[in-house]
Design goal:
Number of strands: 0
Strand content: under 5%
Structural class: mainly alpha
Protein name: Transposase
InterPro entries: IS402-like_dom, Transposase_6_like
Helix content: 25-40%
Largest sheet: none
Number of helices: 3
Length: 121
């Protein structure tokens, strides 16, 4: 179903590893958040998956695949665009909000640095 959207084997160079295996490798890395070098051997060399991922990101293959999958899901009414986030579980660290540290009696100073160039007159 997605095979026609994937790039074809280039005329030059050796044969490509199977697209299915490489896509599974890329999905494994993205799902687990692991470094490319930690890719299990069953997916083949990590360099192959990484290079294919980068190549397809640069040539727009991932954008076409996503658009196609979304279109198929919309046709089947199998996609829900209403998303909600429960704020009780989404918390920012105190430093993200610019909070003053406990015990600090000085207010935080936020000044822009002056330019090192000559003063405008």
């Amino acid at each position: 179903m997605l095979a026609p959207l994937l790039p074809t084997q280039p005329e030059r160079g050796g044969p490509w590893r199977d697209h299915r295996q490489v896509v599974n490798a890329i999905c494994w890395v993205k799902r687990t958040g692991s470094p490319w070098r930690d890719l299990p051997e069953r997916y083949g060399p990590w360099q192959t998956a990484y290079q294919r991922f980068r190549r397809w990101a640069n040539d727009g293959t991932w954008v076409r695949l996503k658009a196609h999958v979304v279109a198929l899901a919309e046709l089947d009414a199998d996609i829900d665009w209403d998303a909600q986030v429960d704020a009780t579980i989404v918390r920012a660290h105190q430093h993200a909000a610019g909070a003053v540290k406990r015990g600090s009696r000085r207010p935080m100073r936020r000044h822009a640095k002056g330019s090192a160039g000559p003063a405008a007159g």
